């Protein structure tokens, strides 16, 4: 659920003269994987116009549920200023057979209609079970709520029933449990092994407005035990611990990704919106690790500041077992730093307090020794339009790292083809024609499927390695925060 920052930011701080340039060759990236990602439309387009949805996968089949069928909220010409009209709720299951690019649909069971047609649910797959919780939307009574149920969908049975058009009693392949712990929207549900984590997000009651009384951020990471007894059973859940991070955990619509950290499964948290008062994206990553004794730690990396692509978007985790480097790739979304002219190959990234949609792909690279880098595609290598926000990436199984159930790719298994190798597909999300959409220029849902291609072993000159020091970047952003805060105090 994307909200632009407060209106006065546009009037006092449209742009700052702070630029980011490419690093010169002979840099500390020696020995680390260097590659380019690009996207291209597939030849077959079954058309699934969704954003802010959830997805599960069994074999070649995907199940898509929840989300919305229109673009960025609040810019619908037919409903000016109306944030989440119920007519754009996705009230169907979609099944997409990736081997044939054929789609199937089925209406959601009435007992689950309200929650499963909501936006920004959290979801995590474990084997045949797709767990979903929370989500925000207008219920059948007309109230806007954040839902408080955990739902499990048994994927193999559900997908098979939909593909054979046996859709009269789909709820037999589902189960449900209710708890206020699941009353979250815009966060993420993910796992390390059998431990599940509900990461940040918010609870919202009433029609959606930025900073309204009904908006409460969780400011927490909650560790959960989740289980189920298979088809015909409800899920069970219990809270193991809750980690409160204060203002640094005041995040929603963030990028949460599975990673390998020093050879061990972990979770990376990147970006998210919005900082208290000033409503800017977050810049410091958070890493969630679990020791062999079960203890959990959430660490904020204060020395690295992510400049681009801070909003929920399609993302790709790639681990290189040879160098021990871990990279998280962020495809589009919205960003605090952006190019202004994608037709100019010499354009530079510039801070933009309007936080626009962007066309670049960003790689957050962490070396084995802990040093981090941010690599951004140059304008000529960016996407053809503004894509990626609230989209999903589906990796190809043959490149998965050691059968990793969370979808991390193994860089050493990806061929070194001079034309690049398709490593997966981007589905859904928001599509915009301009960086800042409005009622006159609204965004839409992306109904095209894009192949994501990786080209290995590129030259350093082909990628924009941000070279501005973290200290300088942080100082500039902090100074802007203070200006916005001062103006906010005057206008209260």
UniProtKB/TrEMBL annotation:
Residues 1-22 form the signal peptide. Residues 471-492 are annotated as: Disordered. The lineage of its organism: Bacteria, Pseudomonadati, Bacteroidota, Chitinophagia, Chitinophagales. This is Uncharacterized protein. It comes from Chitinophaga skermanii. It comes from the Bacteria. Keywords: Signal. Residues 473-492 have a biased composition (Basic and acidic residues).
